[in-house]
Amino acid sequence: MKFGPVSIDEAEGAVLAHATAAGEKRFRKAHRLSREDVAALKAAGVGEVVAAVLDQHDLGEDAAAAKIAAAMSHRNIEVKPAATGRVNLHAGASGVFTVDAGMIDAINAVDPAITIATLAQHAPVEKGQMVATVKIIPFAVAASLVDSVVRICAGREIFAANAYRPITVGVIQTVLPGVKPSVLDKTLRVTEARLARSGGRLAAERRTPHEIAPVAAAATQLARDNDMVVIFGASAMSDFADVVPAAIERAGGTVVRAGMPVDPGNLLVLGTLDGKRVVGAPGCARSPKENGFDWVLDRLVAGLEVTARDIAGMGVGGLLMEIPSRPQPREPAPQPARSALKVDIVLLAAGRSSRMGGPNKLLALFDGEPLVRRTARRALGSKAASTIVVTGHQRERVRSALGGLEVKLADNPDFADGLASSLKAGIAKVAPDAAGAMIVLGDMPGVSSRDLDSLIDAFRRSGGHAVVRASHQGKRGNPVLLPRSLFAAVAQLEGDTGARHLVEAEGLDVIDVEIGQGASIDVDTREALEGAGGVLQD
Fold first, then answer.
1. Using one digit for the tens of pLDDT, what is the confidence trace for 57-81?
2. How far apart are CA 359 and CA 526, in angstroms?
3. Which of 267, 279, 372, 472 sees the fewest Cβ atoms within 10 Å?
4. CB within 8 A of 279, min separation 6: which ones?
5. What is the DSSP letter of 61?
6. 8 A C-beta contact, residue 516 and residue 39
7. Nearest CA to 138 among 104, 107, 115?
8. 241: which DSSP letter?
9. What InterPro entries does this protein's entry cite (predicted)?
10. Element (H or E) spanning 51, and its range?
């Protein structure tokens, strides 16, 4: 592949490195130029473009990423379609992620053009969560390099989402004088919540004196009737011959490991009894905060073997005191109602109206009111918490048209670079407690406050996790409401790429809401604007 300036006479089949305009027609970054495209560029006076020229042994970025992903062997993994040189892979089940780090390192060592990134080994994952991404850096890569990666992938599982199993757990709590029943009751609630996240169930509880014999007897009974036994000692283990490890051995079981290099969680005991796992929980497991008990419990519930060597290897990364790395079960607390999920509107009003041939369409009058003000007023009349207007081209005139409205303003000095710059400027102003942002185009006169409310209502019913799009007769349109989980991806957009790319690339649930013709009416041309009832202003 060759990259750099290319004469327009030799540009057919080349892949554009930057968005390029040919009069009113605009070609996006990564667009492959056809003969007709080259003719249009010539007619517009373009003599040279910056592009990538592929040779016969190259694979385009999407084809290369898709071929690598197809060569991988994995379990409970869903592969998304290739887009912009990237293939994202998502967990097909909630569980624990495992990965062959040697294979990942070998792939990344083939050539910097080919990359793969994954979650950490043994990371807990939820169904639908992204666990890995294959990314081709340039627009194309030599087929021989892709073949090298395919050979590395052959014959071995590269990663998996090891699904949680719905196990039953029996709990033993030992009692000493002074131990409050309320502490024991709280321990049960916290344990039930821990098990619930992985589909497990606390099936039985026994409370015994803090002595070897009664603990051994209770463990024998619970191991017979359940998949796992967890023992909470009233006193922390202070020796490897203390009550909990000694009780496991008295019952005829084996202590696999006592003590672990994870803090909090040092005093965990792991054993087996009648083919069942027995875990002596450290005192910190009475709290919902992450600790070493979570690491062992998740792996066991996901059906993974946990050996003494595995526990000994948990020291690197095992200092958890100040590292809240994932959500944990909490004691019941008030949760915001879905109806209270906050949505901000980002109104895009920075464009140059290039297809109008001069006038700014956002200042066109509809019933005597500038279009941008009309759109902002309808946004303010919706259920959205606030409205952020992104300005750029003719910013002072646009802001003047908004005078007196309680909108927030976001300036985009890079508006000429394309849509992505305006999206980023607007999302950066969204309130930290907003669950989502609705992207509203300033040039859609047919969208009402009621239409915006329909999108917000659908977003709230989804729990704030889905992308919500306006549609008309089954065809996607605008506005689009993005959940907060996509905000980081917006910050990575470039050029004239918009929200549609994110919706297609990230693989989130998409809800289409029929709002009528307004979803598909914009006013990019004089004819369209005047047909919609607008009057252009010079």
1. 889 999 999 999 999 999 999 999 9
2. 9
3. 472
4. 228, 229, 230, 231, 268, 269, 270, 271, 293, 296, 297, 300
5. H
6. no
7. 115
8. T
9. Bifunc_Mopterin-bd (IPR012184), MoaB/Mog-like_dom_sf (IPR036425), MobA-like_NTP_Trfase (IPR025877), Nucleotide-diphossugar_trans (IPR029044)
10. strand 48-53
Let me know: does 230 contact 171? Beta carbons within 8 Å: yes
* Res 414: pLDDT: 86
For the stretch 151-189, pLDDT in tens is: 999 989 999 999 999 999 999 999 998 888 999 999 999
- Residue where the block lists tokens 């950066």: 428
A 10 A CB-CB count for 449 gives: 15
Q: How far apart are CA 329 and CA 287, in angstroms?
A: 9
Give the Cα-Cα-Cα angle 262, 265, 269 (nearest 5 degrees). 105
Q: Output the CA torsion 266→268→269→275 (10° steps).
A: -140
- 3-class DSSP state of 272: strand
Q: DSSP character for 71? A: H
Q: What are the tokens at 359?
A: 């006038």
Q: Which residues pair with 15 in a beta bridge?
A: 32, 52
Residues in the chain: 538
What the block records as the tokens of 440 is 């509203």
Question: Between 61-71 and 143-153, two packed helices, what is the crossing angle to 10 degrees?
Answer: 20
Q: What pTM was computed for the model?
A: 0.59
Concatenate the DSSP letters of all residues of 301-321 into one string. HTT----HHHHHTT-TT-B-T
Kindly compute the dihedral angle of the four CA atoms of residues 14, 15, 20, 26, in this order, to the nearest 10 degrees: 100
3-state secondary structure of 122: coil
Integer Cα distance of 296 and 154 in angstroms: 31
Axis crossing angle, helix 292-301 with helix 181-196, rounded to the nearest 10: 50
